[in-house]
Fold this sequence. Notes:
Elements: H1 3-21, H2 26-40, H3 45-81, H4 83-95, H5 100-113, H6 118-136, H7 143-154, H8 164-173, H9 181-209, H10 212-231, H11 237-253, H12 260-278, H13 280-283, H14 287-315, H15 319-330, H16 335-350, H17 353-370, H18 375-385, H19 396-405, H20 409-438
Helix pairs in contact: 1-2, 2-3, 2-14, 3-6, 3-12, 3-14, 4-6, 4-11, 5-6, 5-7, 6-7, 6-19, 7-9, 7-19, 7-20, 8-17, 8-18, 9-18, 9-20, 11-12, 14-19, 15-16, 16-17, 16-18, 16-20, 17-18, 18-20
Amino acid sequence: MNFINIFGLLLAVSLLMFLAYKDINLYFATIVCALIVIITSNLDIWNALQGGYAVSFADFVANYLYVFVIGVLFGEVMKASGVAEVLGYNIIKIIGSKNAVLGVIFVNFIMGTIGVSGYVLVFCTVPICIIMFKRAGLPMSIMPAAQLLGCALGAGVLPYNPILNNVIPTTYLGTTLGAEPILGIIAFMLLAIPGCLYCIYLAKKDHKERTREDEKRIQEEIDLFEKEYTKKDKPNLMQCLIPCFALLAIIIGFDNKLESNALVALAITVGTLLTYILNWKRLKKAWKKTLSDGLNQGASSIMLASTVMGFAGVVQMTPAFEKLVEWCLDINLNPYLTETISINLLAGITGSAAAGIQIFMQNFATSFISIGMNPAVLHRLAPISSFGLNTLPHNATVVLSMKYMDVSYKDGYKAVAVATILLPTFASLVTTCIAIIFF
């Protein structure tokens, strides 16, 4: 391995982030960046594209096809039936328009806590969140930060979470999902408090920057929304809650009885069918279009997300990536701090928190345990430290969230970076220092 290998890898990752930020077609962007990595690493072009890009692309589709497609269909059915509108409207009615941004964080946190992955959360919660923002008169540019912050809070930071980020360490460390719960609670508070305050600040900042004309326009939009909402034939609240409660009940009740993807797919399928049945009056004329739109969008969404995983597959074939793994192992720091830094870097390069944890555990778990590190502490720090660089612009969930909300990177990514890179990195470093001192 030489300087050109490292330069090529850094160039490709940087270029991919730039192209994603500029909203360039992601398939084109990842292929171009993969070719840069392949050429500068002196890999066989076709073997790398087939064995790295295509295999990783296909593996992701194989693992998440049903979850993606059914998840998008569920979101489409919720929109078409009016369920998303009713849920969003009633949440805002309870918590107040001024707290809409907190409502978005809370909804995503709850769904993530019971095991719904970030990919699926985009489709299940965004239709509800959009209504909340419309009712509150908030700009959509703030929503990705609030939604992704809620995902991060719910996706493995707390103990006992069934999400993949909290499951992977158990395989390598022999721990349980509730390993070292105090550290998880500390990390949660360190992220939740400043994260919520930051999102509240964004909402208040938008309000202060409005001109009288803006206020008038926004109020007119809210009044129009209220008027149209009142006139609509919409489901009652119980019709909306039953599918959601059924989904949650299945995930909680069958936890550890089914493989996680199968469990989520089953739960969302039941939720979708119940939504269709309970709202057939409103869907019977459009059920074919709703079904077609949902399935087509689902297929399109998983193809989009898979391109990033294809690029990650090529990256992992390179000498530079192998060198990075070796460098992480040789960092002359406290092992807990080494873990935090390594997982964050690996998650950033691969664009996946779960991939960062998986690679670290595969390469380092045995070595760290052999030198006397506490497996429970190593476990808990893994999902905590996986949030940070994982939400760089090429992250699949970020890409899906921005696209599904129709928010450009220029308008929304700065807030996303603060809420999901800066604040989680701070929280993980502080939690690691606490672990070093007290554990």
